[in-house]
Amino acid sequence: MRYKFLTAAFAATVAALNFAGPAAATDLEVTHWWTSGGEAAAVAELAKAFDGTGNHWVDGAIAGSGGTARPIMISRITGGDPMGATQFNHGRQAEELVQAGLMRDLTDIATKDKWTEIVRPKSLLDSCTIDGKIYCVPVNIHSWQWLWLSNEAFQKAGVPTPKDWNEFVAAAPALQKAGIIPLAVGGQPWQASGAFDVLLAAVGGTDAFLKVYKDKDAKFAAGPEIAKVFKAADDARKMAKNTNVQDWNQATNLVITGKAGGQIMGDWAQGEFQVAGKTAGKDYTCLPGLGLNEVIATGGDAFYFPLLKDADKSKAQEVLAETLLDPKTQVAFNLKKGSLPVRGDVDLNAANDCMKKGLAILAKGAVIPWTDQLLSQDSQKQKEDLFSEFFAKPDMTLEEAQKRFAEIIASAD
Amino acid sequence: MSNNERPNQLFRNLNAKIASIPMILTAVVVFVGGTAWTVLYSFTNSKLLPRLNFVGLDQYHRLWSTSRWLVSIENLLIYGAISLVFSLVIGFLLAALLDQKIRFEDTFRTIFLYPFALSFIVTGLVWQWLLNPDFGVQRVVRDLGWTSFSFDPLYNSSIVIYGISIAALWQGTGLIMCLMLAGLRGIDEDIWKAARVDGIPAWKTYLFIIIPMMRPVFITTLVIIAAGIVKVYDLVVAQTSGGPGIASEVPAKYVYDYMFFAQNLGQGFAASTMMLLSVVIVIVPWAYLEFGGKKHG
Fold first, then answer.
1. pTM score
2. Looking at residue A340, what DSSP letter applies?
3. What is the residue extent of each domain of chain A?
4. Is there a contact between B243 and A71 if contact means CB atoms under 8 Å apart?
5. Is the Cβ of A100 closer than 8 Å to some Cβ of chain B?
6. Are B121 and A100 in contact (CB < 8 Å)?
7. How many angstroms separate the CA atoms of B65 and B246, rounded?
8. In 3-state terms, what secondary structure has residue A23?
9. Is A146-297+369-411 assigned to CATH 3.40.190.10?
10. What span, in angstroms and rounded, lies between the C-alpha atoms of A159 and A175?
11. What ipTM score was computed for the predicted complex, to two decimals?
């Protein structure tokens, strides 16, 4: 962990040193946790676009995914050493920072550029809005609801590539016999927790999902309908045995190389397939909503701007905010990232098979809010603890897991 | 002795007192003040930012009913017992062996101490690879022909904490050995001669004469080991990040995760207060025995 802090500190020093000189362009440090191959390629597009405006993007990448990066970002903001802009998942992660008055109100720019008209679906901007003011710029829509399947693995096992979750579960024994891990789930806690949420929306349905996470109905969460979801999670747990990797992209890599049959992972996994030179439809198959319930969650990434005293930098923040929503940037960034753009009026002919599926679902309006928007980080963490334990402990009973899940929902805020 | 013969006590050694003011302030404000602040806020429902909104013992109730915290405590006890016993025993044995006036003592000492020069992060990563069933020890032994050999402590919930202890011992025993060696060298040569004249076997000399004489060294060592146990964090993060599942979680990691990741300061403070309490429970009786009552010359 220490070297990550060092990286951040180093980046900060570099930024500070640059400011000392007579710089015509303004340097703006932007922190984010996009460090895997596909992600880095995408963020380079943002940097290029921002540099094109005559300013300079100082990259403050923090490795180790959001769980590691967010504490560093938050302590820099609360500690009085704010960066120029920072990534968060829009929703409730930065809620208290905004309430404490540490973040910049972007309402003026938003009204000027008519964000309410161009950003779709509307719920994206809603999660950036606190007390009627807009505090963040959504840059992409990321949905968790995807099952990525390796066509090669299924060929080797001699079964057809499944069309939904149930077929996938049925095909698991054949995969195992061929020495292939049916389902890759990495060891990071959020992966197990996210996989369960996806199963909840797919197996339980949209209503069940909202009843649990939006209404926080603990009785319902302890009921028979959710028991069904836990049954599916149990299948997933058995299929995920022996994954033995930590990071999500290592798990994705198992699917890319055909060592694993599939992975439940957000559409950011697509960037990895792309970097590996794989083609959607030919080398891999993607099933939104696990093929059962085709919805897309409108989670995603957004940029927040800490309140700065420096007038030049504040100006640069405005430029960056505009650049992020620029149609050209949106296309270039999202194609590399594998995510969907936040505006509906951009040309995405270059999009691949899977992205087009996502766009179609989005156009139909089959969207649900994601847990980042519905639950506090505290409840999320408890959920992660529960599911990482559940996935790693084969002797944990479904009843016990469901009981603890219902308790978390009862105390959730 | 009347007062006008002695200067006011307050102004004696004035320079020294002024010079130590910064340190006193640091100790009071940073250590005592910070501790008091943490304990106070552990009774609030502070989330991302500290707020004085008291909720009584709620955070502690939640803490002690969280299975992850209970697992952490259990792991700390196992890890603590292992590192205490084994680093003392192995450290002392290595030191005693090195003390036999062997050749290349410097070389051996360097080799044994070398792991200590590595940070826990590096140690953790190295051992993560060594213990990885696909690349490490298991693979090597299997490639040698024992194909059913299985050794994957980091991926087995029930023994993962031992896998972490191995790495900790590898890293830490070198230092303990050096401390012990220094202690052994501090023993007067004449004691050994006297013991030999009396015909006492070497192991008995160690056990009943040398070790009791090394009491101060042992106390220092104990404090160093104990501090290392309570604060273990980076090793776990580097090796398993608490996994598989929550099987190798430790209290310090719980504190960090809940303070910063879950944005629940109150819960993190409650957990860190419990850690402080456990240290106090160990330290106070010991300090009483050591410093209280009789005065040391």
1. 0.80
2. B
3. 2-141+299-343, 146-297+369-411
4. no
5. yes
6. no
7. 15
8. coil
9. yes
10. 8
11. 0.76
